[in-house]
Specification:
This protein has about 100 residues and is mostly helical. The chain has one domain: MazG-like (Helix Hairpins, Orthogonal Bundle), CATH 1.10.287. The protein contains five helices and no strands. Helix 1 crosses helix 4, helix 2 packs across helix 3 and helix 3 packs antiparallel against helix 4. The longest helix has 22 residues. The radius of gyration is 15 Å and the shape is globular. About 10% of the residues are buried. The structure holds phosphoribosyl ATP. The site of phosphoribosyl ATP has 11 residues, from helix 1, helix 2, helix 3 and helix 4. This is Phosphoribosyl-ATP pyrophosphatase. One of its GO terms (cellular component) is cytoplasm. Its EC number is 3.6.1.31. Its main location: cytoplasm. Pathway: Amino-acid biosynthesis; L-histidine biosynthesis; L-histidine from 5-phospho-alpha-D-ribose 1-diphosphate: step 2/9.
Length: about 100
């Protein structure tokens, strides 16, 4: 175990907090407040998926990790937009064991 083990839960807590508290300079908060915020998230997920594929094809593992993190972040924002949580994701994965 190390301090990075909780990073998904910590990130999701920050994302959830941005739904209630809206700092001016927060990209995350802007996604929740903008009328087309969900569309922006969906577009990002599409773009980043393509970038992920290209990074894998190029054998660029640093870029692969970067794009994977972008996808996970935007996926968590999308779950929060639907009032879902990381627990829902864990539950779905656990059911597949
Ligand atoms: N994990 C992220 C995160 N990942 C991506 N992004 C933002 O998502 C936006 C779009 O991502 P892109 O990949 O398209 O960024 P890009 O630089 O245009 O393109 P690339 O070259 O990276 O592909 C950028 O503004 C990124 O900064 C993120 N913004 C925030 N977080 C986390 O969310 C927390 C809250 O952040 P605020 O949004 O500042 O409140 C932060 O502490 C971070 O932990």
């Amino acid at each position: 175990m190390n301090s990075d083990d909780d990073v998904l839960d910590e990130l999701f807590s920050v994302i959830e907090d941005r739904k209630e508290n809206v700092p001016d300079d927060s990209y995350t908060a802007s996604l929740f407040t903008h009328e087309k915020g969900e569309n922006a998230v969906l577009e990002k997920l599409g773009e980043e998926s393509t970038e992920l594929v290209l990074a894998a094809k190029d054998g660029d593992d640093d870029e692969l990790a970067h794009e994977a993190a972008d996808i996970v972040y935007h996926m968590l924002v999308l779950l929060a937009m639907h009032d879902m949580t990381v627990a829902d994701l864990r539950e779905e994965l656990a059911e597949r064991r």
